[in-house]
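STRUCTURE:
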């Protein structure tokens, strides 16, 4: 019986010992890195939200074509914030015609920007140029 009792005590003693905190520490580190990555991703993709909303408030409008490489380049400058920029798609999918709104605005080369009723300005504009034309501040 003493041998059996000794084995029970050893098992109780090993069960009573505090478990290692290393797995919890590593899990915490992983969660912190994931949170930092998510925050950085969000900041990089939504950095120009206020700028794009300001362009909309100043009635700046971009005319473009979904297949135009320069229009795609212009959109990529904004990242996810482009959703706030007033954009007019001029291509009618499945045909070679332009939309009536683009014809009425006189858009022929793309991308084209219109600022508060002024004539269209054709070509890719830098964010700094858009800021200068509208008075919207860049982040």
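SEQUENCE:
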């Amino acid at each position: 019986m003493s041998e059996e009792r000794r084995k029970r005590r050893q098992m109780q003693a090993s069960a009573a010992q505090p478990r290692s905190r290393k797995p919890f520490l590593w899990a915490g580190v992983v969660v912190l890195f994931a949170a930092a990555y998510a925050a950085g991703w969000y900041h990089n993709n939504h950095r120009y939200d206020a700028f794009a909303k300001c362009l909309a408030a100043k009635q700046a409008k971009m005319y473009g074509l979904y297949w135009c490489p320069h229009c795609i380049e212009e959109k990529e400058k904004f990242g996810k914030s482009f959703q706030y920029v007033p954009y007019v798609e001029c291509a009618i999918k499945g045909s070679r015609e332009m939309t009536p709104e683009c014809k009425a605005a006189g858009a022929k080369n793309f991308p084209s920007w219109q600022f508060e009723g002024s004539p269209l300005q054709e070509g890719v504009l830098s964010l700094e140029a858009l800021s200068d034309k509208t008075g919207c501040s860049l982040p």
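REMARK: Helices lie at 2-16, 22-45, 49-57, 69-78, 100-105, 127-134.
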